[in-house]
Every structure is written in C-alpha cells, then in structure tokens.
Amino acid sequence: MAKIVNISEIHPTLGFTEFDILEKYRKSFNESELGKLHSVFPFECMAKAAGLSDRRLGRRNRFSPSAKIALMVLKAYTGFSDRQLVEHLNGNIHYQIFCGIMIPPSLPITNFKIVSAIRNEIASRLDIDSFQELLASHWKPYLDNLHVCMTDATCY
C-alpha cells in the first residue's frame, strides 16, 4: 500500500523550473541598478494621481496603469527611441520586470507606436504639480538639507 505523503513534504522536490528561473531573474533585477531605480518610484500612486485606469471599453491593454508610468520612466532612463524601447522590452527580462509585465516570446509587441500612445495618454492627464508633491513626499525621508536650494548653472 502506498504511503500518503503530505504535500509540504514533497514540495521541495517538485520541479517548477520556470518559477525557479523567474525567481532568479527577479533576484538579479532587485540587485541591479535598474532594480534600485524601480524601488524609489511609487508607480501605483503615480498612476492613480495621473488618473490612469484599468477599466475602459475595447481591447484589453497589455500595460496596467502603473506599467505605463514605469514604461515612461524606463524610456527616459534608457534614452531609447520608441522603436528601440519596444525591441529591448521584447527581449530584456529586466525591462519587463521593471514595467511589471511578461511578454511571451511567441507574442512580442510589434506596434512600437504603443509607446507614443501611452505617452500621449499620460500627457493629456498629467498634473505636474500633483506629481511633484507626490514624489517630494515620497522621497522626503531620503533627502538631507531641505533648506538648501541648488541650481546647475550649465542649464542657462
């Protein structure tokens, strides 16, 4: 007669290699410069402040509201064109983790104009003052010398 085994006893022996690999990618992402950048942005709060919503009519969007904000931060960070950003997003797992999306290799994003559409959507709803207040309140614990105002003279 076969012995009944508790699932908690066999769990470590089950082969979930896809999950193990993904977990290794997440760990390397968190240790990378891109992961550190991701950790300092309140993407959910920023998406809410921009008035972005998941609920709308039509085809389901691949990007959640926070993923749209993250995509724009990633674009500014990398300096890529829209086309280059989509190409790198399709092939770079760290970029996908940054945006909180998973793109299957069999279904890559082919329309690079989606980046422009997302940028226009955010721009049409953006209230820069509320964003500035949100980021300032989020970053305030990390800032020293709040009474000092510095300006880079090379911008004039």
TrEMBL record:
Residues 30-119 form the Transposase InsH N-terminal domain. It comes from the Bacteria. This is Transposase InsH N-terminal domain-containing protein. It comes from Phocaeicola vulgatus str. 3775 SL.
